[in-house]
Design goal:
The protein has 106 residues and is α+β, with helices and mostly antiparallel strands. Helices cover 16% and strands 24% of the residues. The chain has a five-stranded antiparallel beta sheet with strand order 1-2-3-4-5.
């Protein structure tokens, strides 16, 4: 879980997805939760998180894709993030250079 911070270095959230890689390039980022289930993500945001808290985890159904979990007042919204062949990330028909930018922009 995380809240966006502006005092981090400009390179802290960079990473590229390599399909089939064992270690995800986002490992170690405060907002990335690579080893939790859908239910654990939901429970974490509902019990510990505050409104507007979010986390990103790998997709269970599509290796290489991600799921963004975002807490609203009363529930959790889930969005699929897909890497592209041009090293960008697509969510909702829009393209982004980094995963974290998706959350900052939306």
């Amino acid at each position: 879980m995380l809240s966006a911070q502006k005092d981090l270095s400009p390179q802290w959230d960079k990473g590229r997805i390599g399909r089939g890689r064992e270690e995800d390039p986002h490992e170690g980022k405060i907002w990335f939760h690579g080893k939790i289930s859908k239910q654990e993500a939901y429970n974490l945001l509902m019990t510990v998180g505050q409104v507007c808290s979010f986390l990103v985890r790998p997709s269970d159904n599509t290796p290489g894709d991600y799921s963004l979990y975002f807490r609203t007042n009363e529930n959790i919204q889930r969005f699929k993030i897909c890497p592209t062949s041009s090293n960008q990330f697509m969510m909702g028909g829009r393209y982004y250079n980094r995963v974290l930018i998706i959350v900052v922009v939306t």
